[in-house]
Amino acid sequence: MSQLARRLGLFDATMIVMGGIIGSGIFINPYIVARQLRTSALILSAWALGGVIALTGGFIWAELAARRPQLGGQYAYLREAYHPFVAFLYGWTLLLVTQTGGMAAVAVTFAHYFLDATHLEIADGIVAILVLGFLTVINCLGVRAGSTAQNVLMSLKIAAITAIVVCGIVYTGHPHPIAAVVLPPLESWGLLKAAGAALTPIAFSYGGWQTSSFMSAELRDPRRDLTRGLLIGVLGVVILYLAMNFVYLRVLGPDGLGATTTPASSAMQAAIGSRGGNLTAIVIAISTLGFLSQGMLTAPRVYFAMAEDGLFFRSVAFVSRRTQVPAAAIALQGLLAMVIALSGRYEQILNYVISSDFIFFGLTASTLFVFRRRARSDEKVGYLVPGHPWTTGLFIAACAMIVIGTVYSHPKESLVGWMILASGIPVYLYWRSLGPRVKT
Questions:
Q1: Taken in order 105, 110, 113, 119, is the CA torsion positive or negative?
Q2: Side-chain-side CA neighbours of residue 86 (13 Å)
Q3: Fewer beta carbons below 10 Å: N end or C end of the chain?
Q4: What is the pLDDT of residues 20-45, one digit of tens each?
Q5: CA dihedral 316, 214, 111, 336 (to 10 degrees)
Q6: What are the boundaries of each domain within the chain?
Q7: What is the distance between the alpha carbons of residues 50 and 83, in angstroms, rounded to a whole number?
């Protein structure tokens, strides 16, 4: 296997975890949740529950990282626990739509808010292409260069979100009450349906921490640093998300939050006036740029691992001797994201993969049962999921419920997503026929 450079530590791992989660969702999705639940207590409870699910996932991935600190992370877990075929379908979906489509959408979002903040007269598509190209070059210069860019952007993102929270608390003249609410009957079927509908955008807002596992081969001590980074990073994001929703509700109230499609901008304009809109545009631009940086840093390691296994073009496994990074895989990720960004079909593509994404979440969590069953009695792991098997089982059940809910709400999009996933079957068989190098 080609040698990648182990140059990253705990701080890098934590920033990668947080950067993979916080994109633009927390600035937009809260209005969807407010339209479903309509009371401050229920809205905050739903975000707290989403945080508990994310933390549970963080616990599971932390043990997986301790047991299998291998190149490709989630891809490797699926390959080792089940079969290279399952891992390939995950990588195929990641490359074709999930990661690439997500990066294209976020690049255009960055362009929109960047232009709002700077008032430059440039087409969104050109800005998106330029930023994707810039991040591709940065990450090809070395894992230290890519990680440093990610660390700086994530630190700026934390500072910017903190600024929004402080402004919302300090400068709100007539805050809405948070605790003084009347809860609807808990036995209400309508409430359960609303809670289920609200948890879907919350789950996606919390998603992304799993991509940190892709960097296992470039962490100096993946068993220690990735495990701790996952727990610290996910907990940090839960705190930031709850603080942001507290501010939205304090400034706008549940009705006002549900009435706007731009909650961050509306809350800041209500708190500090017209300057709030400019501040929000800057914050979202920084946040989306950091998300792009994290995606360009992490996802190419999966395509690299696929090529190393003989399940993708051998050239994608090329590692630069000077920088010791998978330069071809990084370039491939950047190029495909640019193509989708220019096509303008990124939002449609993302709608196709919602159910598929959580199928792989649940499958990956289930690998923990496999690895524990195979473990030697004298094997030292260093970290175990608290409450396993109950917590792991509940996380898998939550993933299953999200898949079922998505299929129920968006059957056509889910079907197309599964067809995209299934298109990887003949591709896998083709690559498998070319040689026996893949691990089984």
A1: negative
A2: 18
A3: C
A4: 899 888 888 899 899 888 889 889 99
A5: 20
A6: 10-376+383-433
A7: 30
